[in-house]
Amino acid sequence: MTSSNIIILCAFAFYMLVMIGIGAFYSRGTKNNEDYFLGGRGLGAWTAAISAEASDMSGWLLMGLPGAFYLTGSGDIWIAIGLLIGTILNWIFVSKRLRRYTIKAGNSLTIPSFFENRFRDKGALKIVSAIIIALFFAVYTASAFSSGAKLFATLFGNDDNYSQIYIVGLIIAAVVILLYTLLGGFKAVCTTDLIQGMLMLVAILSVPIIAYAIISGNGGFDANLAKNGGITDVASFVNPMTVGGEPISWTGIVSGLAWGLGYFGMPHILVRFMAVKSEREIKKSGTIAIIWVTLAFIASFFIGILGRAFLTPQLNDTTSETVLIRMIQQIFSVNGILIFIGGIFLCGILAAIMSTADSQLLVTASAISEDMYKGVINKKASEKNSLLIGRIAVAVIAVIAFIIAIDPNSSIMGLVSDAWAGFGAAFGPVVLLALFWKRSNSAGALAGMISGALTVIIWDYIPFMGGATIGATTGLYSLAVGFPVAFVMMLVVSLITKNPSDEIVSEFESVKNYSE
Would 141 be classed as within a structural domain? Predict the structure, then answer.
């Protein structure tokens, strides 16, 4: 191992120990399920905002999305535009209303329990919700683990031992994330997310600025793009209406924008809205979050575009997702101090990975512990036993995610895409209609949830089209299909089944005028 690698490893070790220490600190204040899964509804504006966005912007923001820009140019910017629109709409329309409703509806601690309390369901919604959460979060967490493993393999491996270092990195990422999630619960996760979110932002804003300065002093962007990136048609590369030099299709634009629909159904983001300590804090949180995510998307775009001009040798389909890692390595390789600073910046990538995986594991634990075990299987379970089941669930899902991510060639963007579509289609329409349509009922919610999840699974995983999936054949993102299918199904089934009770309607109306 080189001296540079040792310095970077020291930076990583310091960072991980701090994260584990935060988990240990908050473990002392975790006494019941509301503390462990919602932090006692006591999040401040900054913590809620940065935690929500950091838990969303996993390794795909710093690895998957820049890798896509690096390979094909600006055409994938429609994904970022869709996600930015989704973020804004989610904070403006969903955040405050969801917090109100979850308090009024039996002080719901989780999204599945909110569905049950909102519709006065007898358990079916909780069970189906918990199954969907466990299924898609296993895939989503796998993407975070894979990001961590690729980070370690890129930094400390080579062509001969890449696969072995990838496995070592996978183990380290899984163990550290598990430790502080198991110890401290929601408060630990949100506090570490605040630290990690700020570190992520510093890293992704600094690197493209420094890279551009270096390129500008060495012949300019166009010349370096041709020399290092093999791109001579600069206008086409930076044109959002082309992908890989070819005109973008309508399915490409629709698919990119459709990513924004996913926000309405992301349990690990929605639970942050539920945990904010007041509605005044939510308004402030929304402003902070929108600014953060706007800066993050802009930086991610420039990392991919500038990385194509900055890096040598060129990256390929397999290595393109390491563009930020390699830029940091090349920029901060002069001396020990700069190498250590580069190591801290690389911790920003690690932060993106960890801030998402911990949130996903915690939401999965709450679904299995609070919703399935205590809500259906053993309604008389004590807080202690319920917390134990939740922590066991965290470990089990982590193991499943580890197995999914064990292939070094797995695509971070592909894993995130599948999970994002699953949650967006299954939960997004149900959340929106539950909050804003008083005629919706439990039968409609169940129909929408199941149809959304099944549409994504069929679209992405069943090879109907001559050995290929419908998604691969059409090029249309499954969320663009699954979301409207689920929305229409919930509308239709709610209308053809019995009206909600007077009690449910009265509660719905009271939420409009609810104040603390």
Answer: yes
